[in-house]
Amino acid sequence: MNIRLIVNIFLVMTLGIFITFLSIFIGKQSYSWLPPQAAAESHLIDNLFSFLVTIGAFIFLGVTAAILYSVLFHRARIYDFTDGPHIEGNITLEIIWTAIPIMLVLWIATYSYQVYETIGIQGPGHLLHLHNPLPIQLSLGKKEQEPTATSLDKPLENIDVVAKQWAWIFSYPQQGITSTELHLPSNQRVHLALQSEDVLHGFYIPAFRVKQDIVPGKTIDFEFTPTLIGKYSLTDSQYSGTYFATMEAKVIVQSPEDYDKWLKKAASQSPTAAPNQAATEYAQTHNKNIQLGWKTVPPAAPPVVNFVGDSHL
Amino acid sequence: MTNISLNLGGESNHHPTPTHWKTYFTFSTDHKVIGIQYLATSFIFFLVGGIFAMILRGELVTPESDLIDRTVYNGMFTMHGTVMLFLWTFPSLVGLANYLVPIMIGARDMAFPRLNAAAFWMVPVVGILLMSSFAVPGGPAQAGWWAYPPVSLQNPTGNLINGQVLWLLAVAISGVSSIMGAVNFVTTIVKMRAPGMGFFKMPLFVWAVFSAQIIQLFGLPALTAGAVMLLFDLTVGTGFFNPINGGNPVMFQHYFWFYSHPAVYVIILPIFGIFSEIFPVYSRKPLFGYKVVAISSMLIAVVSAIVWVHHMYVSGTPGWMRLLFMLTTMFVSVPTGIKVFAWVGTIWGGKIKLTTPMLFALGGLIMFVFAGITGIMLSSVPIDVHVNNTYFVVGHFHYVLYGTVTMGMYAAIYHWFPKMTGRMFNEGWGRVHFWLAFIGTNLNFLPMHPLGLQGMLRRVASYAPEYTFWNILASLGAFLLGMSTLPFIFNILVSWLDGEKAPPNPWRAIGLEWLISSPPSVENFEEIPIIISEPYGYGKSEPLTANLENSTMEMVE
């Protein structure tokens, strides 16, 4: 083996090790690109994402390094118009760069499948309701000692969600109240029944990493487990018409005691009309003489609910 | 038709009269004229779609909806997507294929020249229908380029002639035009290759077009049928997809995506073909693994038919369906990865010249690798549950559609401009264009990824204030991209009118199109070539044909 070959192999290995560490570093950074982890599901999805970012960074850096190297060191000399070496291929290399991607794909698919089964978010088409989805560790967001409770220790909290153009209405059937703010107890799995009164909508809470389209004419089951106490945002993720961007609701995750207190408070309030951004904007623009837009489906009347949240975006 | 002339030393010594500009406005059946008609028309609509994008990004500089009415914003994003797909990417790629495929296989024209012209002339009709939708009551379609029901069925004005109806008619006509083109390309490639050109002697651009047009044949009927059924629901009140009349809105999504997913491969495969043509020329090396790359084009076409549900992971599909399509979608990355590695293998160890076409191809390749990685992330169901319908998806597909497809189209236009027009373009302005476009693309679309991860939805005219920073960056990038088209337009127009005359083979490339004059004569070849070697024979001294003047390497005159 000549010196040139040894030096080349050494350089490639060094570069490979450098890219590996850089990719792992970038993979760790990827958690900071995501919203706070507010549900038990969030951790699993973020870990999967970080894994994909690590592998992706490695591939991107590797391929780009090879291209940049060629562009820098394999340039034709200025008056050289002759051809390069007649290399048509290399069977070994082609087998390697087919086999390794296939193995990677199988690894990624298996890992993704496991995460999917564990989070058990349901969705339509489930022929049997899994009364025992796989347990997920809760409250991993906190830095202190964790309770090792799993998501299955308590019964499901049932909440009905209705989406319409352009408002969200949450009903708590067990307590008989309605609200335009979604309050949830922490560390308890919730079961939502999602319905739409008109067009497709989407139920999406970025902090929980959960999303489900809502199809008019069906009720769709959806489950997840909020863990971190705080205020989050629910948005309509499936384009639903003119004021679709205004369809936001606050999601408040509270301790079970505070949640119970809120339920009682809501029950004591008589129903009033909630502020609704779509209705407000429509009223403002459609009273004018000069219309700067085209005719639109008018928003539904603002929902009349027990608990009226702050609808300010 | 014979073209009687004295053969004074081969194809390349002809200096045919350049085509009169009026010919480009006629029903010409010459594939070269039709190709340029497609390219010019599609570029104009690229600028139209680009202006819509500037308006969108202008609105998104601030979180509130304060530039235009929300209905106008919704019309803008709908028409931006529709125009860019149906009036820029598809027609421009068909135009390029129209121009190059017959020459690359040694034919005088396509199999069905009149069908070819008819297919082209439907494109301005589609354009007129879509543009006129701005003038009807209610304005243009505002349901996104997907036109999902029930939103697309809502028709607030109650008029029979409304933007959504015009949109559906336009898409149906575009589908018919594309099917006509597909029949033509597949027949031409199967039946009209020159003697000696077996399938494994075809250039990879031809393989790419072949695979892509086969997809058009099996996929378009589903879209056209879906559009027609939606049109009936909208106009006469049938219940195919309208839940009020007992229809299933998710069914429309299946009809739509059964075509529209493979459609993205119809778009990307010819771009891959362009890369495969360009890298060997500017590295002076054969394409690495030619046979495997050819087969992987066909494999991508086949697998593309069974991945469509990855657009519907959260639509209301059952778990088994989500997981099955996750597997098939991830699998399509394997033949795609093979191509990427083959291109790297092609340039590695070559004699690279960084001309304008090479810069665009390299930039396109790097951005494609990035897009492919975010694509794998999207294919994973749990990840997609989080980022579906957010800006993460928008960032991903714009890296493909601008970062790879548009950059690849620019590479192709620069590379074949001398052949098509008989003029050289200005290399300096070409480089300015490249750098502005490369920086603009990354500045515009990279910020969309953190936005999507943070939960910012797509298609919104207003957003939460916490997303402002990345939106401002993206809008700056968009305006830069808009500006970057100016050096290109300037370069092309001035060069076409007054550029240095181009020799037959300015790039010293190996290929049938480089053995004929720039521009070619009407019949392409005096004598149909007899092919005796594989393409990309750089480094060998094998002639390409047995009968044509095989080397036009010297600068003529």
Automatic annotation (TrEMBL), chain A:
Residue ranges annotated for the Cytochrome oxidase subunit II transmembrane region profile domain, each copy included: 25-123
Family: Belongs to the cytochrome c oxidase subunit 2 family.
Organism name: Cylindrospermopsis raciborskii CS-505
GO CC field: plasma membrane
Subcellular locations according to the entry: Cell membrane; Membrane
Domain (Cytochrome oxidase subunit II copper A binding) ranges: 154-265
GO biological process: ATP synthesis coupled electron transport
Full protein name: Cytochrome c oxidase subunit 2
Membrane disposition: Multi-pass membrane protein
EC number(s) on file: 7.1.1.9
Regions crossing the membrane: 6-27, 48-71, 91-109
GO MF assignments: copper ion binding; cytochrome-c oxidase activity
